Amino acid sequence: WFLWFQAISHLSHHKAKVEAMTLDLALLRSVQHFAEAFKAKNVSLHVLVCNAAAFALPWSLTKDGLETTFQVNHLGHFYLVQLLQDVLCRSAPARVIVVSSESHRFTDINNSLGKLDFSRLSPSKNDYWAMLAYNRSKLCNVLFSNEDPEDWTSVLGGA
Ligand SMILES: NC(=O)c1ccc[n+]([C@@H]2O[C@H](COP(=O)([O-])OP(=O)(O)OC[C@H]3O[C@@H](n4cnc5c(N)ncnc54)[C@H](OP(=O)(O)O)[C@@H]3O)[C@@H](O)[C@H]2O)c1
């Protein structure tokens, strides 16, 4: 909050206009609404920081039926970037910053055959361990940030 306050103070000093908007990453519909509301403003988007995250949550499913840590920490951001991709491209130079964690190193999302195991991304209650869910979501952040922007359209098409 202190850094946020400092940033706002800095911007105010330069007479920048700051506006807050609501976004719930645990609800895909909310992400969609946010993207639509942002686009309706018809402004440029030069930097999108995907910072929000949940940590050490007890197991729960979102209204979209996915494990909450996975949806908040990765899928919500992923969806948001896809929805704003055209605005980002139009606003070049533009950059997406995905905040991950060193803890992404302490997990795996592949099965024993080296293939992506979707059940590890959104596990059932019996297979859930909060720390592991966080680590996996942070690994998704790293993999996402390694995506070549040229491939975004194909990524969206396969989602
Ligand atoms: N803290 C660490 O030691 C550490 C270490 C490595 C990496 N990181 C990473 O750094 C980033 C920031 O961490 P932090 O410790 O500053 O986190 P934090 O203080 O817990 O803040 C998390 C932020 O995420 C937002 N958030 C949570 N659920 C949300 C949802 N469903 N929709 C929209 N926003 C939601 C929260 O909003 P509300 O305030 O409205 O709830 C809050 O602003 C995260 O990506 C984290 O993984 C942190």
If you had to describe this structure to a student in words, what would you say it looks like?
- This is WW domain containing oxidoreductase.
- Belongs to the short-chain dehydrogenases/reductases (SDR) family.
- Keywords: NADP, Oxidoreductase.
- The structure is a single chain.
- The chain is mostly helical and 159 residues long.
- It has a single domain, classed as NAD(P)-binding Rossmann-like Domain (Rossmann fold).
- The chain has seven helices and two strands; from the N terminus they run ααβααβααα.
- It has helices at 2-13, 28-40, 68-83, 85-90, 118-121, 130-145, 152-158; strands spanning 47-50, 95-98.
- It has a two-stranded parallel ribbon with strand order 1-2.
- Helix 2 (28-40) runs parallel beside helix 3 and helix 3 (68-83) runs parallel beside helix 6 (130-145).
- The longest helix is centred in the middle third of the chain and has 16 residues, at 68-83.
- It starts with a helix and ends with a helix.
